[in-house]
Amino acid sequence: MGDCRKGMIDRIYTKSISRFARNTRDCLKNIRELKELGITVMFEKENIDTAKITDEIMITVMGGLAQEESMSISQNMKWSIKRRMKNGKFNAPSLPYGYTRINNEIIIIQDEAEVVRYIYSLYLNGTGMENIANILNQCVRKNSKGFIWCKNTIKYILTNEKYTGDAIFQKYYTTNQFPYRQKYNNGECDMYYTENVMPPIISQDIFDTAKKIHKQVQLSTGHNKGGIYLLSGKIKCSLCGSTYRRKMINGNVHWTCIKHNQNAALCDNKPISEADIKIAFIRLYNKIYSNYADVLLPLKKALQELELKQSIENENIIELRRNVLQLKEQLRVIAMLHTKCFLNEAKYKEQSSEINAKIEKVNKDLRLLLQSDNTTLKDIEILIDYFEKREHIMIEFEPKAFEFLVDKIAIKANLLVFHIVGGLVLAEEIWPQKNKCFLLKK
């Protein structure tokens, strides 16, 4: 570099980037300095010539380098963590309610441990999770983070083996490919059971008994193996946007808005019985079955004509989408480089503004071309084929038909708004006065 600064070198040829610099920071620093000195670099292995690429492409290339380096570091860290898990020496970064860490030693918080034992005692004596949460909230026993108690928090405590002093590591794992996502471990990776990780708050017998009761409750309430009911995650509140959850009221299954369940003042939508939802679906299903030829066949024809009209423009749509993805990748790269101090604030704002302007323009062009979606036509064809093969109306609720047709349900006052296959949105009254069904849009 000293000879370069003295003007003794005009161009540098190097075998590969790894020979030029051992890390991304040094590589960026040196290339930028050389560029200011008017010196270009040729990397033979990667076939990259700094004399022939723009600043934007340079950033993308260096971003790729940074990503590869990050992946390499990540893999090394994962290997180290798995090694410690296997040897029983892994220290979890966070501890469950009832524990704290002092001088690298896990200590029981006695006041919180009493609450944990109280929760197990109530549950083993027949108190449900939701009732336990209500009892704790009435006792003003807030958790360590100050949040109110809820059913999910109680479930977490009752199913966490760490309260026995043992731990199962790697219940969740992070994918190896970018973008990284955390997923529940269903056997994709090894799990490690380690004994005596922390001082126990409850005995193994109490934990096993609670686990057995929880399984019995799941079976008695019709909970499936996957831990999800047929309506779970499908019902949304139109007033506050919250998801509906299952709740037993007077021995009957109801679905209630989460916010309304926490505090009725937060949302006016009241609980609705599962039986009413199923009856409303049966009415809606039979109306579609009786009228599908008058509604779906004309819709199919209109979509086919629209698709034919736009078939010439498909290549343009693909190209525009590709451009958007490339621009978003450039935006991600410069954001990462700015975070790592490889780009100063002024340069980052200039380039990000320019890229965002390009994205907006491409998206505008894309919206003009996208008048219909091919998947919509395919869904409508599937829907027509489904009802053509149907021989009779629905008498009793059919779970398979519901799962096939319904994407989600929005509830507002006396209306159930069904979002079904093909993008159709149909509203059915919960307690119909004149047995109406409303087609909101298609």
Write the layout of secondary structure elements.
Layout: H1 2-5, E1 11-14, H2 17-20, H3 24-36, E2 40-43, E3 48-49, H4 55-87, E4 99-102, E5 105-108, H5 110-124, H6 129-138, H7 151-158, E6 167-169, E7 172-174, E8 182-184, E9 192-194, H8 204-220, E10 235-237, E11 244-249, E12 252-257, H9 258-262, E13 272-273, H10 274-310, H11 314-339, H12 345-369, H13 374-389, H14 399-405, E14 406-412, E15 415-420, E16 425-429, E17 437-441
Parallel strand pairs: 1-2, 10-14
Antiparallel strand pairs: 2-3, 4-5, 6-9, 7-8, 11-12, 12-13, 14-15, 15-16, 16-17
Helix pairs in contact: 4-11, 6-7, 10-13, 11-12
Low-pLDDT parts are 438-442
- Overall spatial form: flat
Largest sheet: 5 strands, mixed
Structural class of the helix and strand makeup? alpha+beta
- What's the helix count? 14
How many domains make up the coordinates? 3
Mean pLDDT: 78
Q: What attributes does this structure have?
A:
disordered C terminus, 16% strand, 3-stranded mixed sheet, 442 residues, alpha+beta, Hect, E3 ligase catalytic domain fold, Rossmann fold, 50% helix, 5-stranded mixed sheet
